[in-house]
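User: Please fill in residues for this 835-position structure.
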């Protein structure tokens, strides 16, 4: 043992060390108020030590004794863990991209570039793996939380026996914080009744400033400080979360430094960029536009990135670039003039968003340098939690919510009406998939595609001046995001705990990358030799340079078709030797049939080990599948007071159902107006309100159409009962919807009545099948964030009458005998491979 002070050595051994050979560092005189100690970390939290003073009848004869404060080992670095969103290998300039990322360049030039790090192909699965050092199915995140199902590998619940890096460092004396995107909180625990055990604060991060779901409007985000919703953008035109979270992180770091400069920090910095919606500031849009980076189209962009990558040496000189996928994406030369105009606008906004985000990350890093702490700060900057997103489809979209409702081929002529406001608060925009393919250069395919490197190969820069001497070096060892947590632990001199809160911990599944920090480590063999990948039925296995892959059978925008019923076996298998084929372009399966069989069995073994089964190839169907919800089993909801901020996952779900909403109100002298009930916002949702005293119910269908029921007269002062009744003309939403969704988004007839008298009725020819705008909430008495109809009102549009009682009655359709027969026939066709 190494001690600076040996007083009460046995007590510290007993309380903190556990074993005689544990490396524990003590400062000060034990028992004094200023004493500190590191711990062996096997048991978290560390047990309280036995009192080491003397207790007599009176204080004068007694001796006080204080337990030493727990601190990390003296050499432990600060940690800034950065992960951006939906960004492929060819995006940052650091790895050959045309979008300027000087901050990532700075980290790489002051440390190391990594060109062989991998994600899971999707957002929250990658983040769960990053946080825990375990594979995404191991921690319940086989898919995003919004698609969770009731199986251990897919329930979106990080198990107690798999503590996060935040919790491990917190109990070892770090200040821990999380900024930006969460997306690892189950959707059904995201309301203000919690539970909060799987919010960032429950996962080991003392301070959280960010959004809980998968994406956010950067102009008006559904934003939280810890577990309290905040609205820092109100009254601040031009406020943007990209800058807002950098400001808050800088303020937090400064506060920590001023209060206790010696306390090391772990900051998880997870901006929403470049996930849709792409929301950069006007300044950055103008900067990128003036660079004219994209005027010659996405194929030329791909070629330019490819040449840059070879010049930088971040890909081998003999890397092959596959031909443009003309069967998947229209060549630039075949695009119409309107399409080219639109697509260039789309990509300039995306690029501005990426460059803006990198700039704001740079401000955070500069603040650390200004505090004099950069030399002992381990910065890990991961570009993307998956490949670039193609969820906008081949044409892009002004509204990402449309994609999640099956609308993904909106003609350019329609989209051009948003041309001048693209990227502003008036759009929830996404770009053409052609650009996404180019931004994944030199690889192919996209986010969601776990069998192609375009979906899973990221890049990364790491700096730590006190430790890494090979400035600007390239590291090509195979690694995965599960390697990051053990890397941080080893760098900090902290071991994985054996128990946390009395719960025995499962082993970390990743491999530390500290071995790559050595100056002569460029040619050191990879220590991570085997890794499986699986996402929504597409899968692959890496082993010692070989990659077994399933042939891509679904583009990311094809989310509503019949799912592959046997994703393990109903596949075309491909084989690649990545030792000689960096870009996964040469399928050698025919040359190595034995290895194909061997590696498939290895995949099955890995899949069993890490909870991948049962495999499920459905995509959109899982969004409407049953999962825990505080509204489950309830058909009536009653509210008597204003309330805002209830997230979609915890609010009454009206989609694909009949329902009746009844508002019992009192109108004061002089009349009333305002929002009684709303859910969703500008890009999809509904509202029930008084407009100049007249009752209105409105459905916003993806900002493409608005269907409005309205009474002819303003309500007189006094009590009134206003009712909106909707009769849904659809099949059941259970198993039938899960498999082919023919019961979703059907027509229905709405009737608006006032005091028992019908004032308006009309048929809605189609309805939303999947989701409302999921970064908005269910609000009573006012409307937070964006409104469902800008032409009628602006939020908060507070109700000026008295809401005596509001009742929501939901009549969810049930399968009839005829529906069941249709289902059975459909399932037989699916099983026979005819659908």
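Assistant: Residues filled in for all 835 positions:
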């Amino acid at each position: 043992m190494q001690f600076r002070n040996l007083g009460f050595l046995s007590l510290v051994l007993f309380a903190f060390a556990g074993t005689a050979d544990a490396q524990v560092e003590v400062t000060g005189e034990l028992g004094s108020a200023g004493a500190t100690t590191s711990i062996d970390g096997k048991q978290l939290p560390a047990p309280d030590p036995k009192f080491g003073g003397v207790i007599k009848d009176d204080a004068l004869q007694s001796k006080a004794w204080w337990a030493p404060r727990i601190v990390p080992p003296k050499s432990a670095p600060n940690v800034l863990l950065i992960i951006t969103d939906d960004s492929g290998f060819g995006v940052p300039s650091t790895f050959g991209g045309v979008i300027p990322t000087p901050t990532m360049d700075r980290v790489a030039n002051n440390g190391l570039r990594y060109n062989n790090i991998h994600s899971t192909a999707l957002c929250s699965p990658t983040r769960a793996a990053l946080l825990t050092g375990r594979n995404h199915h191991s921690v319940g995140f086989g898919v995003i939380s919004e698609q969770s199902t009731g199986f251990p590998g897919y329930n979106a619940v990080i198990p107690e026996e798999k503590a996060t890096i935040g919790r491990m460092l917190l109990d070892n004396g770090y200040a821990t914080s999380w900024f930006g995107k969460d997306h690892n909180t189950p959707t059904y625990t995201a309301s203000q009744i919690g539970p909060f055990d799987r919010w960032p604060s429950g996962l080991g991060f003392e301070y959280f400033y960010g959004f809980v779901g998968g994406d956010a409007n950067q102009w008006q985000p559904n934003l939280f400080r810890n577990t309290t919703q905040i609205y820092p953008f109100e009254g601040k035109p031009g406020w943007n979360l990209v800058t807002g979270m950098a400001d808050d992180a800088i303020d937090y770091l400064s506060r920590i430094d001023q209060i206790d400069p010696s306390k090391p920090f772990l900051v998880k910095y997870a901006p929403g960029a470049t996930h849709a919606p792409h929301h950069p500031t006007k300044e950055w849009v103008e900067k990128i536009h003036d660079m004219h980076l994209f005027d010659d189209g996405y194929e030329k962009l791909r070629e330019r990135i490819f040449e840059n990558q070879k010049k930088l040496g971040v890909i081998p000189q003999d890397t092959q670039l596959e031909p443009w996928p003309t069967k998947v994406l229209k060549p630039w030369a075949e695009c119409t003039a309107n399409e080219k105009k639109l697509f260039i606008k789309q990509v300039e906004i995306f690029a501005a968003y990426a460059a803006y985000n990198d700039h704001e990350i740079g401000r955070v890093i500069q603040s650390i340098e200004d505090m004099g702490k950069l030399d002992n700060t381990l910065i890990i900057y991961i570009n993307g939690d998956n490949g670039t997103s193609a969820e906008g489809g081949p044409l892009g979209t002004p509204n990402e919510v449309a994609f999640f409702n099956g609308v993904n081929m909106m003609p350019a002529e329609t989209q051009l009406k948003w041309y001048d406001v693209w990227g502003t608060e008036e759009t929830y925009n996404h770009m053409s998939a052609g650009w996404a393919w180019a931004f994944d250069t030199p690889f192919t395919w996209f986010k969601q595609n776990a069998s192609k490197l375009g979906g899973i190969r990221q890049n990364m820069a790491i700096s730590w001046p006190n430790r890494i001497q090979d400035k600007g070096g390239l590291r090509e060892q195979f690694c995965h995001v599960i390697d990051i947590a053990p890397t941080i632990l080893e760098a900090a001199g902290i071991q994985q705990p054996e128990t946390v809160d009395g719960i025995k911990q499962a082993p970390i599944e990743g491999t530390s990358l500290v071995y790559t920090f050595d100056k002569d480590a460029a040619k050191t063999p990879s220590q991570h030799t085997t890794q499986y990948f699986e996402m929504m039925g597409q899968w692959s296995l890496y082993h010692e340079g070989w990659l077994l892959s399933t042939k891509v059978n679904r583009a990311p925008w094809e989310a509503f078709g019949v799912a592959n019923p046997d994703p393990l076996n109903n596949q075309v298998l491909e084989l690649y030797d990545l030792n000689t084929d960096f870009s996964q372009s040469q399928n050698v399966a025919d040359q190595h049939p034995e290895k194909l069989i061997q590696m498939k069995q290895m995949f099955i073994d890995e899949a069993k080990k890490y909870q991948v089964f049962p495999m499920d190839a459905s995509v959109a169907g899982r969004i409407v599948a049953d999962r825990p919800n505080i509204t489950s089993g309830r058909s009536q909801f009653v509210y008597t007071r204003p309330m805002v901020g209830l997230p979609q996952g915890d609010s009454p779900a009206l989609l694909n159902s009949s329902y009746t909403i009844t508002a019992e109100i009192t109108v004061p002298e002089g009349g009333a107006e305002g929002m009684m009930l709303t859910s969703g916002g500008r890009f999809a949702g509904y509202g029930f309100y008084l407009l100049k005293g007249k009752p209105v119910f409105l459905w916003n269908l993806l900002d493409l159409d608005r269907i409005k029921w309205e009474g002819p007269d303003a309500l007189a002062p006094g009590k009134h009962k206003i009712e909106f009744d909707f009769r849904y003309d659809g099949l059941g939403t259970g198993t039938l919807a899960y498999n082919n969704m023919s019961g979703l988004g059907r027509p229905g007839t709405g009737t608006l009545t006032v005091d028992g008298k019908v004032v308006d009725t009309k048929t809605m020819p189609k309805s939303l099948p999947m989701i409302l705008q999921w970064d908005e909430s269910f609000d009573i008495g006012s409307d937070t964030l964006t409104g469902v109809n800008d032409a009628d009102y602006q939020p908060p549009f507070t109700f000026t009458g008295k809401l005596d009682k509001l009742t929501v009655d939901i009549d969810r359709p049930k399968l009839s005998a005829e529906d069941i027969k249709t289902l059975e026939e459909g399932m037989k066709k699916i099983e026979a491979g005819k659908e």
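For context: The CA atoms of residues 469 and 662 lie 69 Å apart.
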